[in-house]
Amino acid sequence: MKGAFAGLIATVPMTISMMAMRRWLPWWQKGPLPPHEVTRNTLRAMNLDAVEDKHHLAATVAAHFSYGAGVGALYPFVDQLPLPNMLKGSLYGIGVWMFSYLGWLPATGILEPATEKPSQRNVLMIVAHVVWGVGLSFLFDNLYKGQPTYDIVNDHKS
Q1: Is 109 left (phi over 0), alpha (psi -120 to 50) or beta?
Q2: pTM for this one?
């Protein structure tokens, strides 16, 4: 449960970073970001076009933050690794990106694989997942392990 809460909250800076980095993409790559595409394609596959039309933003936000919480719930297993926290979070974020965009999303037909996307969009999404992973590790470490401060520069507790 602790990892889920940290994953939910870490989705905030991730989402902000995705929206900010999207502005730097070439105009022809500024289409909808993956949370929008995943929600749209999932609702269409479930024949819920009416929901998709009326409440798409709410459904996208709910799905995106729920997924962040869901995969965040698994983070306590990764937290046990003897690695610096920022590295654990970064690697976990990249792992979630790989599992999602090279794994289950294309396997279920919800999205095409990341290998078929422009490299700039993949970089955007990988960086956003690193932001999420670092935020997750920071929150998990500070909220639940009894360590009130975190020295990002030296990657140790002070």
Answers
A1: left
A2: 0.85
